[in-house]
């Protein structure tokens, strides 16, 4: 087992927090400020790769441009042993994905409050010209002080950058929360983050991502295909007695059409009354839910819902286009997985 470095930059190393495909994350201490930090170091096998360095440093630049309570903060960007590293805010808390896995679905009001705070953080990122591109429950951390932090902007794409590592026609990201336009390799904006946040809201309330059936056909390309073609699942149909306004909002967020989805600012305005009415709070509470046996339609002939206009069903998407999208998913799935493995750390 490799020995831990004693120092990275001027930071004293306290331990190894995790290791992934792109590098390592250490717990460190800034001796000058007596402040705990998380140190993310690019892996040795990628130190000669200009592409990986650019992706890694882009995360640091994106985060360093923001200073907001709902966004994880970068304090310093440096180099260690010929590899770039980021000194980041050490989060004392738990990610929502881990909490769901351990304790089950969230109380709807608490889920709404998580989404509200995440929307505030993503809105701040938008103002900095950044699209996250990989919003999911495990990238939303609830701190011990009751704040929700959006983390892991490693897949984020600065809208003002001329260099595009994630080129048009290639997507990276977690398929469970992937916006259709992102799966098709199209240019994306903050509406893709709204879509992913809607899928995350569904996951928080039901305990499962919206397009997972729990069977052997839940493979990568099948999930991508459902994002492209399947009817959107509806929370008020899945959970008896579920709040209608929150259900309809979630359905709009998951619309196939970006122009139908609410903006981040609209979410910030519309969620507080729902949170208040439902008694939402942080830290979130968990509850058991009994899901309806009704399953979302997955065929290409799925009809539109009240929350998604008829035009939102893309009947012009031919079989050839769908095959191309799925084939593209297979081709780049390995690359996406490598990046995500590191982000999860």
From TrEMBL:
For this chain, one GO molecular function annotation is: ATP binding
Q: Which positions are annotated as binding ATP?
A: 40
What does the UniProt keyword field contain?
A: ATP-binding, Kinase, Membrane, Nucleotide-binding, Serine/threonine-protein kinase, Transferase, Transmembrane, Transmembrane helix
InterPro entries attached to this UniProt entry: Kinase-like_dom_sf, Prot_kinase_dom, Protein_kinase_ATP_BS, Ser/Thr_kinase_AS
TM spans (from-to): 322-344
Q: Which Gene3D superfamilies match?
A: Phosphorylase Kinase, domain 1, Transferase(Phosphotransferase) domain 1
On the tree of life, the source organism's domain of life is Bacteria
List, for all copies, the residue spans of the domain called Protein kinase: 11-275
Protein transport as UniProt keyword: no
Pfam families, per database record: Pkinase (PF00069)
Query: Entry's PANTHER family?
Result: MITOGEN-ACTIVATED PROTEIN KINASE KINASE KINASE 20-RELATED (PTHR43289), SERINE_THREONINE-PROTEIN KINASE NEKL-3 (PTHR43289:SF6)
**What protein name is recorded for this chain?**
Serine/threonine protein kinase
Please tell me the species this chain comes from: Plesiocystis pacifica SIR-1
């Amino acid at each position: 087992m490799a020995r831990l470095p004693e120092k990275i930059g001027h930071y004293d190393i306290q331990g190894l927090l995790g290791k992934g495909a792109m590098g390592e994350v250490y717990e460190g201490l800034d001796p000058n400020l007596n402040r705990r930090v998380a140190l993310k170091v690019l892996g040795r096998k990628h130190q000669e790769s200009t592409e990986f360095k650019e992706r890694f440093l882009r995360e640091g630049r994106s985060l360093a441009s923001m200073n907001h309570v709902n966004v994880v903060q970068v304090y310093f960007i440096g180099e260690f042993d010929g590899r770039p590293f980021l000194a980041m805010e050490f989060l004392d808390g738990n990610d929502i994905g881990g909490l769901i896995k351990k304790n089950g679905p969230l109380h709807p009001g608490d889920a709404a409050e998580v989404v509200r705070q995440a929307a505030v953080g993503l809105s701040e990122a938008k103002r900095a010209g950044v699209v996250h591109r990989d919003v999911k429950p495990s990238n939303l951390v609830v701190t011990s002080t009751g704040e929700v932090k959006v983390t892991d902007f490693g897949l984020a794409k600065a809208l003002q950058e001329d260099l595009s590592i994630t080129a048009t026609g290639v997507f990276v990201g977690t398929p469970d929360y992937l916006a259709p336009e992102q799966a098709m390799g199209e240019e994306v904006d903050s509406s893709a983050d709204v879509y992913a946040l809607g899928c995350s809201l569904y996951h928080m309330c039901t305990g499962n991502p919206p397009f997972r059936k729990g069977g052997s056909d839940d493979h990568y390309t099948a999930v991508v295909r459902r994002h492209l073609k399947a009817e959107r699942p509806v929370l008020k149909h899945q959970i008896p007695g579920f709040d209608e306004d929150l259900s309809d909002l979630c359905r709009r967020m998951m619309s196939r059409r970006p122009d139908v989805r609410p903006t981040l600012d609209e979410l910030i305005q519309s969620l507080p009354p729902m949170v208040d009415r439902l008694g939402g709070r942080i830290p979130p509470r968990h509850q058991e839910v009994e899901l309806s046996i009704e399953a979302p339609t997955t065929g290409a002939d799925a009809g539109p819902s009240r929350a998604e206009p008829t035009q939102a069903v893309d009947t012009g998407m031919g079989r050839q286009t769908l095959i191309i999208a799925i084939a593209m998913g297979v081709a780049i799935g390995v690359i996406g997985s490598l990046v995500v493995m590191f982000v999860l750390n």
